[in-house]
């Protein structure tokens, strides 16, 4: 059983037929949990996910459900509860994109993306929360995106939905914390998925250049972070995303305003931080995320965004 897991629990991953969703399902199964996942139409992808989960030595329950439909969500939970038991780990990964300039975006383009990426998460959280609260234990992880923080041309609908997940996460975290239920958000940068591969080479090149590691992340790396946030070891982390936590630490150490701590902010030029300040910030992040960051790994980290990527890489490596 994976590190940090004390009991095998029932996990439900939405949008699990490929990419990040599949990686989350496999990571949770590898940690020893019973895994169910849903998909809206990709039966072949669902079969591949089930096979990937079975390679860990666990079984997987695949359920066809459209998270936009609250009745379909209720039916999916009913099937999972009857087969495996109450959902204790919920990963909201289901998502779609229909890019277009805002001046030409149709109501249908806007609504479909909001309904899938944001309202779908609301539907599953609302359905899972009562039983988690009664059990006084639960983990909820919402998969957002850096686009939700910085926006993107032609992605007004996608950015709005992913930004909405941040507010939803923080509100749910405050509501459910007294019942020992955590709610967190993962906001990956560019990841190798079918969605990013369908974008232009020019977009992919610019996105790659923006990443300190000089490459796209992988779904498995995101899955490792999600698995950590679902573990017993993450019981004190709630309402968090890496940028938000780094912002809190920066405000405390550097005495800056929260709105100054953006992904593009430079530590030295924009935040007036010296090397000792950075060491103090790293110590705070190590404590918050239970990670270790060697001093040599700080070389080349000059912006807040680079620090966020470093933190996520360490969280994933330790999951």
Overall description:
There is one protein chain. The chain has about 325 residues and is of the alpha/beta class. It has 2 domains: about 10-240, NAD(P)-binding Rossmann-like Domain (Rossmann fold); about 245-319, Non-ribosomal Peptide Synthetase Peptidyl Carrier Protein, Chain A (Orthogonal Bundle). It has helices at about 20-30, 45-55, 70-85, 105-135, 145-150, 155-175, 195, 200-210, 220-230, 240-255, 275-290, 305-319, and strands at about 10-15, 35-40, 60-65, 90, 140-145, 180-185. A 6-stranded parallel β-sheet has the order 3-2-1-4-5-6, sandwiched between helices. Helix 3 (about 70-85) runs parallel beside helix 4 (about 105-135). The longest helix has 29 residues, at about 105-135.
Please identify, by name, the CATH architecture of the largest domain. Answer: 3-Layer(aba) Sandwich
| Global Rg | 19 Å
Order of adjacent strands in the largest pleated sheet: 3-2-1-4-5-6
- In CATH, what is the homologous superfamily of the largest domain? NAD(P)-binding Rossmann-like Domain
Oligomer state of the chains in this structure: single chain
Q: Indicate the low-confidence ranges by residue numbers.
A: 1-6
Summarize the SSE layout with pairings.
Elements: E1 10-13, H1 19-30, E2 34-39, H2 43-54, E3 60-64, H3 70-83, E4 89-92, H4 107-135, E5 138-143, H5 147-150, H6 156-176, E6 181-186, H7 194-197, H8 201-209, H9 219-229, H10 242-254, H11 275-289, H12 304-318
Parallel strand pairs: 1-2, 1-4, 2-3, 4-5, 5-6
Helix pairs in contact: 1-2, 1-9, 3-4, 4-6, 9-12, 10-11
